[in-house]
Amino acid sequence: MSALFRFHGGIHPPEFKALSNGTPIATPPLPARFAVPLSQHLGNPAKACVALGERVLAGQRIGDADGRISAAVHAPTSGVVSAIGPHAVAHPSGLLQDCIVIDSDGLDNWCAPSPLPNWQDAGDDEIRTFLRDMGVVGQGGAVFPTSLKLGVNTLEQLIVNGAECEPFISCDDRLMRERAGEIVDGIRIAAQLMRPRTVLIGIEDNKPEAITAMRAACAGSGFEVVAIPTLYPSGGAKQLIRILTGKKVPHGVRATDMGVQCFNVGTLYSLKRAMMDGEPVISRILTLSGDLARPGNIEARIGTPFAHLLAWAGIQPDSEGVIMGGPMMGFDLPSLEAGVSKASNCLIAKSRALFPPRPPALPCIRCGECASVCPAELQPMDLYWFAKAKDLGRAQEADLFDCIECGACSYVCPSQLPLVDFYKFAKDEIWAAERDKKAADRARMRHDFRQLRLERDKAEKAQRLAARATPAPASSAAPDPDKAAAIRAAMARAAEKKAEDSHAPAKTPLSDDAKRAAIEAAMTRAAANKAARESAVSTAAAPGDEAKRAAIEAAMARAAARKAAQGAAAGAEAGATPVAMPASPSQPKPAIDDAKRAAIEAAMARAAARKAEQGVEVGAASAAMPSQAKPAIDDAKRAAIEAAMARAAAKKAERDAAQKGDN
Amino acid sequence: MSGFLTALAIMAALAILLGAILGFASVRFRVEADPLVDKIDAILPQTQCGQCSFPGCRPYAEAIAGGEADINQCPPGGEDGIRKLAELLGVDFKPFDEGAIEVKPKSVALIDETTCIGCTLCIQACPVDAIVGAAKQMHTIIASECTGCELCLPPCPVDCIQMVPVGTTVANWKWSYPVIPIKAVKA
User: Where is [4Fe-4S] cluster 2 bound in this sequence (chain B) (predicted)?
Assistant: First the structure.
C-alpha cells in the first residue's frame, strides 16, 4: 500500500448514498419510444446514417462518428426510426438538439455482435476506429471519446476512478459490487494497450463492499485497489491523481504528459463489453434517487425518456424538478422528455426537505472560506469579483479555466453566493469572445486574400492586353478600308435609328453606356459582314450540303437573337413597372430603392443585348451565304435597338424616381 | 577653467555618441507599418460591411489612427467595440449617434436557391468570398464564413437573398449572468 497524498481543500457534504446503493441494479421495462441524441460526447455530433422509417435492431449503428473527436451512436432497441431532428436533450439550456427517435417494436431483437477478438494483436489505429464506432466514451462526466485516450503507450500510472465522490450517486458503487470481474477485464485491456508501470484503482472508503469486490476481482492481476479517504471532490481526475500518485498536474499540462491517465470504472466496463462481447454502448448504469418511492440503480438504455424512468421509480407528487448529475455539479433538467445519454449518471427528484431553497445571497464578506476549500487552489473570491465586474481578462489571468466547477466554494459560502454560476458565466463569455475573434481573423484573412486576388487579376489582365497590343501594329499595319467604312456606316445607321425610335432620349445626350453598346453592336455587325463575305468566297466552290448546314445555323442564330430581344424587352417592361407605382413623396427611401432596381434592370437589359450580339457574331461567322446572314444582322440590330430603348426607359425611371425622392 | 572645459568636452562627446546611436537605431530598427492600425484592426469585427463609410475594416482602422474618423462608426462592433477602442486609444467612450445606426442581431445571408438566376453579382460583392456559384449556376452562401455585412443584398437583381439571424444553439449557448433577487426589507 503506497502512501496517500492530500489535495488542497475539499468538503464533506452529506452523502445520501444509502438512499440508492442498497438494492441491486434493476432493469426497468423498455419504453415505447426512445430519443437518442446524436451528440452524447465531446466533439462533433454523430452523423445519422439511418433513414426515416428504417427498421433498426438493438446495437445497430444509427449515427457515424464525424471527424477525429467524435463517437458513433447506436440503436438502443429494435424498432422503426420515426423521427430524425430537433428533440429535447439533457442540457441546462433547454434547447433542442438533433436526436434519432426510435419507436420500439417491443421485441428487442439484437443485431449480431461484432467483437474485436484479436485485440491483443490489433494495431493502435484499428483499436481506435473500433472503439469510436462502438461509441465508447468516458462515463465519468466529460464524455471524452475513449479512443483518443488510448493512444499513449508509455505510461507510468493508470488510474482507475471509482471514487464517486458526489452525494446521492451510487451507480459506480453498484457496478463495482456486481460486475467487478468485467471492470477488471476492461482494466486488463487498457493496461495491455497502454503498458503502465502500475495500475491504481481509487475507491472512496465509504464504499467498503465495492472495495472488497474489486480486491477479490483483482487478485493475482497486480492491480492495486486503494481505499482513499472520503472527501469531495476526490473523484475529480486531477484530485484523484494527486491523492494516488502525489503528482500535481499544473495549469496547461495534460495528465498524459506527466505519465498518468485516468479512466472511470464505467468507461472500462463499456470498453470490455465492446471489445470482448461486441456490444456497443447502448446502456449505462444510472442512479435514481431523491424524492422517489423506489430509489435505486438501473441499467438504462440510452435514449430512454427520463419521465419513463422516474414514473417507473415512483416519483412523488411533491417533488420539485429533477437534477441530472449530482447536487454539487448537476443541473436542473428543463425537460423530462429528453432521453438518457452516455453522460447521464444520476437523476435526483428534488423535494423541499432534501433541497431547501437557497437563502438569499448577501454581499461577499471576504472571509476566504472558499479559498480554503478550493481543490484547484484558486482564489474563488477574486474570480467572483472579476466575473461579477465582467472583467474577463483578469478572471482568465486568475486561472479561471482551472476551476473544475465542483461547487465546494458555493457550498461553504456564508453569504450563499452562487459562485459557480458566476464562473460558468465568465467561462462562456470568454469562449464566445474567442469564437468571435477566430471568426474575425478568418474574415480578415479571406478579405485580404480577396483583395490580393483582385489586384492580381487586374495585373494579369493588363499584362494580357499589353501583350496583345504590341504585336498588333505589325500584322495589321494597314487597316481594312472596307471594315472602317462599314463601321462608320453602321454607326450612322444606329444613330439615326435611335433618334427616330426613342423620343425621350433625343433631347438628352446618350449615356456613355448606351453609346458604348451602340458602338459595340455596330462593330459586331461589321465583323459579321466581313466574316460572311469571306466565307462566301471560301465556300463558293462547295455548295449543296455545306450551304444547307449554314442556312440552318443562320436560322438558329436568328432564333437566339430574337429570344434575347424578347428577354431585353421583358426586362425593359419590368424596369418600367416599379416606377409606375406611386412612390410616396414623404419617404425618400423606397424611391431610391426603385431607382436602384431600375438601374439593375437596365444593367440586365444591357447584358441581354450584349449576349444577343455575341450570339449573332457566332452565328454569322459560320453562315455561308451573305443573303442568309443579313436577316440575322437585322435581328441583332433590332435587339440592340430594343436594349437601348429599355435602357432609356430605365434611365428615365431613375430620374423620375430621384426627382420624387427629392420632393 | 580647464575642469569646466573638460566637462563640456565630455558632455559634447557623449551627446554626439548617443545621438549617433539613436540615429543608427532609428534607421536600423525602423517599424514599417503603423502598429496602432493593426491594434485597431484587431478590435474591429472584420465584417467588411462599409457601414462606417470606409471601404472595409482596415481603411476604417487607418482613418481612426489618422484621426480622421470617430470611434463610434462601427455598428457590428457594438458598444463593446467602442469601449475597447476607447480603452486602446485613451479617449472617452462615445455612444452611437442618435438614430444613425441600428444594431442588429448577428445574421448570415441566405440565398433562396429556387429564385437565384445565377448572375454572379452577389459573388462579386461579397468581401470575404463566402458565396460559391458560377454564371447561370445556383449560388449558395457558406454560412460559417458569412460576416453578415449585407453587401450582397443590393446587387441581387431578383431579391433572392435574405438575412437570417443566427439563433442560439447548444453549441453557442451561454450561461447567463447570475441575477441575485433582491427582497425589500422593512426598515
Answer: 116, 119, 122, 156
Q: d(Cα A46, Cα A98) in Å, to the nearest integer?
A: 10
Spatial distance between the Cα atoms of A504 and A655, rounded to a whole number of angstroms: 12
Residue from the list B56, B168, B169 with its beta carbon closest to the beta carbon of A447: B56
Contact A78, A104 (CB under 8 A): yes
Place of cell 439484437: A110
Q: In which residue are the cell numbers 444577343 written?
A: A612
Tens-digit pLDDT profile for residues B19-60: 999 999 988 888 776 788 888 998 998 988 888 889 889 999
pLDDT of residue A120: 81
Mutate which of B174, B182, B183, B185 to test chain A, going by most A C-beta atoms within 10 A?
B174
Q: Supply the ipTM of this predicted assembly.
A: 0.81
Q: What is the pLDDT of residues A118-171, one digit of tens each?
A: 888 888 888 889 999 999 999 988 889 988 888 766 788 999 999 999 999 999
Task: Tell me the CATH number of domain A17-107+125-349, given options 3.40.50.720, 3.30.1370.10, 3.40.50.11540, 3.40.50.150.
Answer: 3.40.50.11540
> Per DSSP, what are the bridge partners of residue A297?
A287
In terms of Cα–Cα distance, which of A426, A419, A606, A625 is closest to A521?
Answer: A606
Lookup result for grid cell 455587325? A525
H/E element holding A192?
helix A180-194
- Grouping H, G, I as helix, E, B as strand and the rest as coil, residue A633 is helix
Instruction: Give the pLDDT confidence of B147-185 residue by residue, as tens digits.
Output: 988 899 999 999 999 999 988 888 889 998 988 766 677
On chain A, the residues whose CB falls within 8 A of the CB of B160 are none
Is residue A39 within 8 Å of residue A46, measured between CB atoms?
Answer: yes
Query: What ranges do the domains of chain A cover?
Result: 17-107+125-349, 358-458, 532-622+638-662
Handedness of CA A201, A206, A210, A211 (dihedral sign): positive
Contact B170 A428 (CB under 8 A): no
What's this model's pTM, rounded to 2 decimal places? 0.71
Rounded CA separation A344/A126 (Å): 28
Residue A283, strand partner residues: A301
Partners of B157 on chain A (C-beta within 8 Å) are: 600-601, 603-604
- Is the C-alpha dihedral spanning A176, A178, A184, A189 positive or negative? negative
| For testing contact with chain A, the best of B39, B44, B158, B180 (most A CBs within 10 A) | B180
Question: What is the C-alpha radius of gyration for chain B, rounded to an integer number of angstroms?
Answer: 27
Q: Do B128 and A446 touch (CB under 8 A)?
A: yes
CB-based contacts of A414, cutoff 8 Å, min separation 6: A365, A367, A369
For residue A296, the cross-strand partners are A288
In which region does residue A280 sit, left (phi positive, over 0), alpha (psi from -120 to 50) or beta (all else)?
beta
The three-class DSSP label of residue A446 is helix
Under 8 Å between Cβ of A193 and A150: yes
Q: What is the DSSP string of A374-401?
A: -TT---HHHHHHHHHTT-HHHHHHTTGG
| DSSP code for A632 | H
Phi, psi of B119, rounded to the nearest 5 degrees: -90, -10
Amino acid present at A192 = Q
Cell 494516488 maps to which residue?
Answer: A244
Distance from CA of A428 to the nearest CA of B (A): 5
Question: Which chain B residues are within 8 Å of A407, Cβ to Cβ?
Answer: none
CB contact under 8 A, B170 and A93: yes
Q: Which residue has cell 486574400? A: A449
Identify the helix (H) or strand (E) that includes residue A131.
helix A124-133
